[in-house]
Amino acid sequence: MVEWYTSPGPVPYPEAVAAMETRVNAIAAGKAAELVWLVEHPSAYTAGTSAVAEELLQADRFPVYRSGRGGRYTYHGPGQRVAYVMLNVGARGADLHCFLKALENWVIGALVQLGVSGIRRSGRVGIWVAREGREEKIAAIGIRLRRWISFHGIALNVDPDLEHFSGIVPCGLATYGITSLAALGRPVSFATVDKALRDSFGKFFPEEMQAE
Fold it and tell me: In a designed cystine with 142, which of 10, 69, 115, 164 is the match (CB 3.0 to 4.6 A)?
């Protein structure tokens, strides 16, 4: 069974990474169940494995952390729901491309329940919305695998301060904007977002797998 846990308060990014490392090792060893962990972080910039130094525009604004996830620079902070997915991708088909697509579909499905039409775009990882003649990013995705166990995950903008994204080139895409549920006129609580994520999850990731 997939376990779900929601942290009651902000979790510093380094603490979250350390906790994920421990859980991933336990899952790989068969000592723990898969986990979806819902968190919120204090403001920080994180650099994925493809991060380019020139895309960190304001290095002294918030703490900056190197991250083992895929992708470039992104922002985490209050008002953003982060869902860390520690799943056995090996037991779920061992296909990273299909896994990433399922993550995108999961978020799109949750957004539908929240009254927002999310879209995928080839060559641009994450979820986008069409708004006033342009496309803006509403959710970022960054994953790492260890022994076919995933960690890191998705970051959905519920109601963060969007100006905080100006300290980086988000995900290396300078020509696209960033949006949120609140900016789209859909102000909702974390509890509502979490329910939508939970309801959508099982459509793309069976929460109970048959033993081999």
Answer: 69
